Amino acid sequence: MKKEGLFSHFEYATVRRYKDIIEVAKDFDIFWDSPMKFIHLLPWQQKIKEQFIFWKQHFDQERAIDTLNTLQISCIEISNPAYPSLLKQITDPPICLFVRGTLLNLDQISAVVGTRKYTSYGQRVTEQITKTFAINNCTLISGLALGIDAIAHHTAITHGIRTIAVVAGGVDEDSLSPKPNIRLSQKILQDGGAIISEYPPGFKPETYTFPRRNRIIAGLSQEVIVTEAPMRSGALITAHLALDYNREVAAIPHSIENIQGMGCNDLIANGARCIYNIAEMFTASSSQQHITTQKQLSLSPIEQKIYQVLSFEPTGIKQILQKVPLSEPQILSTLTKLEISDVIKNIGGMQYILC
Question: How many domains in the chain?
Fold first, then answer.
């Protein structure tokens, strides 16, 4: 294992902030073996130079390797054939990835991201979007954050969809954040997924590492789907990075009254693909064929009429009666059948939504 796979907390806190190091020496081994006078020429504060030199002189490579082995963490360098090819294409790829679990099935991989402060609508559409990944044999990637990210990961696990979480600190449990999602990270690994980061074990997330995390999510993805996000959101950072990397970006439209979804509307207004029909969410991709869910294929003509007037926003029985030319008993009977079939959901007060 090369030294670039063994970054310490200090090294990332300095080298990753001062990108001119990478420009001076693209190969970290060259930088590592450079004479001390080279370090002194770098545009760092004198204190940082002294700290780096001290760290370099006391770095214990064998101990670092033992730590990775003990924690069952692999380190994949950018020169390794196992390093994700899509990630290599971005302007600033990590020089290594620390991985718990296994990086598999990266040929079909899309991100689902969104806000921590989600609404019930955001939760429902995230669950529906995620379920379609099973139909397309697609791997889901997200950021293990509270809110939409966690909903996407959890839904993927529930429906047998492989999922990868990119974190802003070390992949060891002591470093993982947020703590409420530790159990979720364990489930991801148990179900054959992976937890990845460019930061080594023991590195705690810092403010500047979250945007760095987002670039990895965007870089690994063929498409980034934003299901709910306000105008100031880390999910929008991921989306804009994906655009910079020439990746597809899609978003779910929201009511103009929902400030938690205004970021999605803004993405759509500026050219992101608008997902207005979840059953057809993959049709815009040239590499994917039209998908129609089994639920739609098995609906009777009466069921289809009612299904078409429902959405992910609550719809009352009076609204359905106005749009469907059937008697109230017929509609209620059909709604019951659709609910039993897990096509729709009664959320109370005779209000219905699509599942």
Answer: 3
